[in-house]
Automatic annotation (TrEMBL):
SUPFAM superfamilies hit by this protein: Winged helix' DNA-binding domain
Keyword rRNA processing: no
Cell location: Cytoplasm
Cross-referenced Pfam families: MarR
Keyword match Lipid metabolism: no
Source organism per UniProt: Streptomyces tendae
Ranges in coiled-coil conformation: none
Principal location: cytoplasm
HTH marR-type domain span: 18-148
Superkingdom: Bacteria
Name of the protein: MarR family transcriptional regulator
Keywords: Plasmid
Length: 163
């Protein structure tokens, strides 16, 4: 007769870490963000600052409110990024003349020059990702759809709490 001292199997075992979608997305996000570091460090940019630079290069002069919406971040995150980029001479902030409550941001000539160097970043990241262009497009579409679905769900849950 042998003594089996193993723990009993739970009726419903919790999923292991690698089975959590949130963990898979988190790990992928960290890996991709890490791939940006050696590309951005020589340019003096962090990944969040890079996103601000790309957004301003795409949209031109925008209000801080619009930038917050484009980046899908909050003011508490975007404001320090703007201040740091402004201190580095890459963007400027100005109050709108017709409505001083609105602060607009735009790339400076130095910021525009740096923005031109950023065009080498996406191909390098594409190489690091190791997926074909059609696979990247499919992945982006799925993740965008996931984001919309989760936001819709979260908004519905929040609405139920207030009723």
């Amino acid at each position: 007769m042998t003594d089996d001292v193993s723990a009993p199997e739970p009726a419903h075992s919790a999923p292991v870490l690698d089975q959590h979608l949130c963990f898979t997305l988190y790990a992928a996000s960290r890996a991709i963000t890490g791939a940006y570091r050696p590309l951005l460090d020589p340019l003096g940019l962090t990944y969040p600052q890079y996103l601000v630079m790309v957004a301003l290069g795409e949209h031109g002069t925008v209000s801080v409110k619009e930038l917050v919406a484009v980046l899908r971040l909050d003011y508490g995150t975007v404001t320090p990024l703007i201040k740091r980029l402004e201190a580095n001479g890459l963007l400027k902030r100005e109050r709108r003349a017709d409505d001083e409550r609105v602060v607009q941001v735009a790339l400076t000539p130095e910021g525009l020059a740096l923005h031109q160097h950023l065009s080498s970043v996406p191909p390098a990241i594409g190489e690091a990702v190791g997926l074909a262009p059609d696979e990247i497009a499919t992945l982006q579409e799925l993740v965008r759809r996931l984001t919309v679905n989760v936001n819709r769900h979260n908004n519905a849950v929040a609405a139920q709490r207030t009723t």
